[in-house]
Design goal:
Glutaredoxin; seven-stranded mixed β-sheet
């Protein structure tokens, strides 16, 4: 390789490191942030995350876009068993995975609560699934209550988030299920103000 070619390679590598450092310290910025919130950006982000994810346990059904949601057995805060999607049959669902220790999850909860409260009686049902210790979830919700139902699960390689496509366990993670029980959209990362209304259409 010529000396000029080596200089170009060094410059490209330095530029790439600079971009990575900027993203690490300052976040994605408005342009990249908007791209990541787009449907195309979300698909690319999920494909990249899935590509580095460990293989799920043998026989575990993982839903893809357009496929029926797998049957998931969870517990409500009071210990009552809840089966999804059967518990809300005939209604579209916005399922949001979160944890009490997850800062971005907590920041988006008021937006989820606002959206849930704006739904008509037979409209979209928002459901929070906490991948967390039950006692931590209960303590958190005593301080910061929400109007939509919260279900409990424990994080792991076969948790309900993984079954709905979140192979890497990134939080927050949201899934849109249509009234026929099919997965329509999947989103990594928090909702920004007003974004849920557009995303859930």
């Amino acid at each position: 390789m010529t000396p000029a070619g080596k200089i170009v390679l060094v410059a490209l590598a330095a530029g790439g490191l600079g971009v990575a450092a900027s993203l690490w310290s300052n976040g994605p910025g408005p342009l990249l942030g908007a791209a990541m919130r787009s449907e195309v950006g979300q698909r690319a982000l999920q494909a990249a995350a899935s590509g580095t994810a460990p293989a799920p346990p043998a026989g575990l059904a993982i839903a893809a876009r357009g496929s029926p949601m797998p049957v998931i057995f969870l517990r409500a805060l009071d210990g009552r068993p809840v089966t999804l999607p059967a518990a809300y049959v005939g209604r579209p669902l916005l399922i949001n995975f979160w944890a009490s220790w997850c800062g971005p999850c907590i920041q988006e909860m008021p937006e989820l609560d606002r959206f849930a409260n704006a739904q008509p009686a037979a409209g979209m049902q928002v459901i929070g699934i906490a991948l967390d210790q039950p006692e931590d979830v209960r303590r958190f919700l005593q301080r910061t209550p929400v109007a939509y139902p919260i279900l409990l699960d424990l994080p792991g390689p076969a948790d309900s988030g993984v079954q709905l496509g979140n192979r890497r366990g990134v939080l927050p993670y949201s899934v849109l299920i249509d009234a026929d029980g099919r997965v329509r959209k999947q989103k990594l990362g928090p909702f920004q103000s007003g974004e849920i209304d557009r995303w859930a259409r």
